[in-house]
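call fold(seq) -> tokens
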Amino acid sequence: MATIEKRVRNGKTTYRARYRDPAGSQRSKVFARKADAQRFLNETETAKARGTWTDPALGRVLFRDWLGEWWATTTNLRPKTRDRDELLLRRLALPSFGAVPLAAISQRDVRAWVAELSARGLAPATVQKAYQLLGKVIGAAVDAGMLAQSPCRRVPLPKVEREEMRFLTPAEVAALADAIQPRYRALVLVAAYGGLRIGELAGLRRGRVDLLRGTVSVAEIVVEVRGVLHIGPPKTRASRRTVGLPSFVAEELAAHLTGPGDPESFVFTAPHGGPLRVTGFRARVWRPATRKVGLDGLRIHDLRHTAVALWIAAGANPKEVAARAGHASVSFTLEPLRPPVPGGRRGAPRPPGRALRHRSAGADKHSRSPAPATRAWPQRGPTGSRE
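ret:
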């Protein structure tokens, strides 16, 4: 039973509100006015009835202490994601909220924090990610019964402008393959016609290459985090896939693999052996090659966009393209094709010659069934001519 006790000490009158928490333990809080004490008791009883009551002592836990506890129990992050999230929380969230009790962080505080990050010139995507991480940390405090609700709600965020994607023509792909160091010629072609991510290319092993069928199977990736290489499975189930290659790419790959190596050896390695380190590859190999052929600023990932664009230009349906790219969502696969491409038109760059539509083996000649993911793509040479 909740009660209010009037107390007078040294000529000063106060009111102690007594109540029991959901566990049955007696608690109290002192107020200067009886009306405030009564309002507190009413709100407490309502929260208990709705199941939203939280222990005030838990709300007094500092943000930095809760973040340490939450971070220590967050185990479902990949190495690169964990490193990125730790950096954002340490550099952006802790300086502003580290010494603040959880219950004292208001929606106005979070709104002002987001505005301050934007005023500092941080990229909108960085601000959005920092806000999402803060929301996760405080949302976990709500789930743990430390807060009644999260202050990360209805906060206006800076708009992330979609960057215009770059697509190469088959001739440009061929020029880049010719300009790059010979040991990475096949890497350029597999990326541009097979759509593999750079981590998937770095993690590709010889045993996952079927030269007879002209396919490569994506089963491992290599990522570098603060100079340490991590080898593991792809991020999603959709990323585990088998991709068919045009015959001329398969032939380049066969020539690349003529040297010694066992099935567990990596297909593409560092200049002196060992797993390919993307950071060093980008600085020492990729950028000099792109500058040489007038493609300065081209990202390695743009070869993947090129592959998607060429598949669609060749007549592939969106579901097949999503499967080949390792995406679970068709809309995510088509996103790079929305910005305008050179020449003022939207969509995929169309390779020279007639776009081919393939039917799966045994399909009725009037049907257009999706081709299997292991089938090689339309047979075009490096310059776009059919073989």
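Residues 63-143 form a domain with the DNA polymerase; domain 1 fold (CATH 1.10.150).
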